[in-house]
Amino acid sequence: MHFYLKEPKKDKESIIIIQYKTKNDKSNFKYSTSEKIHPSDWNFQSKLPNVQKGKKGAKLKKITTNITKYNDYLLKVIDEALDKEILLNNQYLKERFDEKFGDSSKRRKRRNLTKKRFLLYTDFVEDFIERARDGMINKNTNKEYSKSKIKQYNKTLNRVLDYEKHTGKKIPLNAFTQLVYDDFVEFCRNTEKYSITYTGDLIKNIKVFLNQADREGNKVHGDVNKRTFTVMREISPAVYLDESDIDILAGMDLSQSDRLQNVRDWSILGVWTGLRGGDLLSLPEIDPEEDYIEVVPSKTRDSTAVKVIIPLHPHVKEVLRVRGMPRRISDVKLNLYVKEVCEMAGLDALCEGFLMDPKTKRKQSGVYPKYKLVSSHTFRRSFATNHYLMGFPILSIMKITGHKTIKSFLEYIKITPKEHAENLKKHYDEYYKEKGLKAGA
After folding, report:
1. Computed from CA positions of residues 334, 340, 344, 349, in that sequence, does the dihedral angle turn out positive or negative?
2. CATH number at 243-416
3. Contact 275, 301 (CB under 8 A)
4. CA-based diameter of the chain, in Å?
5. How far is 65 from 172, CA to CA, in rounded Å?
6. Residue 347: which H helix or E strand, with range?
7. Does the first or last residue of the chain, that is N or C, have fewer Cβ atoms within 10 Å of its Cβ?
8. Across all residues in the chain, what is the average pLDDT?
9. Structural domain spans, the chain
10. CATH numeric code, 121-225
């Protein structure tokens, strides 16, 4: 498979075509990417746009990113066809490509004919979400918006619509001021009883929409750039399993209960891989003689698709050698049964945390036995916290957990002031010991 120009010899921009030869057709499968490039900017050896610096280089890089989507999708369709034993021919490929790119390309062309201007905030957001569904490129990732991100945006739109219904007023796009921000936050926190974190997530998306509207030439109020128009975050008192807790879990004899033994094994994999619940429970068979596993987290699968490489901890290798890969269960059952396992392990120290109130259906803060607060997400937090306390480089841990900044990572891990001091003292001791050895050499 490769790309080529439809009109390579003409002194004007040419459509870029993707081409592939199937075993079941005499002719090649060809499909327009709708991207155009001048032949002088095309590398006929690599069959990709030239690599350049500056403003023009950025434009060519964007074209490369856009046509690469067609190549990636073709590989995906081929793999699926082989896996499901589907006859792979030009007709099948065209149908799949039309489903993925055909309609959205036409809609994008229609949208680009005229630039829309909006008066109401929710009108712009509805249009923005529709364009994201149609395949609009996210400027931060150079990829299409993921389904999960679009789902988040829809939730934010619905909350703003709830607020407008509550006030009886529509918000003009150029009048989303600090006063509206303050009133919206008050509505979320006091009327709807949303958590600080959830309200902060809504504000984050509201700012995304306002900034996008501004970039597209719509009039937006300047208050969006004020420091007080901020994304709120709550420092969660979530627990983690320290090394002694994990040692207790690993050493428990649960051979009399296949259900609890299976959950305990998932827990060991969780605390030493740092994966989110869904990614953990979707792990394929792991060879205990290997040193690493490679995973593309579901959160970034539709955006950056960056692989995470995780070393296999001795606890994990021991589980796999003795009992093999744990049996698949749902995240709901894992979260339910792991509390039972942790209670049996005696992890009952009182801790601050949140538990769901069955009456209000909202999380309630309080002090509870540790085992009641443990969930699949506790494994991930435990991984980050324990590796930090072990002295592993923060950036190396962040490569696995996916945190973008050191600040967000340090807010995520659960370290007491004493533990911070002990960690610093350990580094002092190691540093001056090494310095002393060198000095005496």
Report:
1. positive
2. 1.10.443.10
3. no
4. 79
5. 36
6. none
7. C
8. 86
9. 2-113, 121-225, 243-416
10. 1.10.150
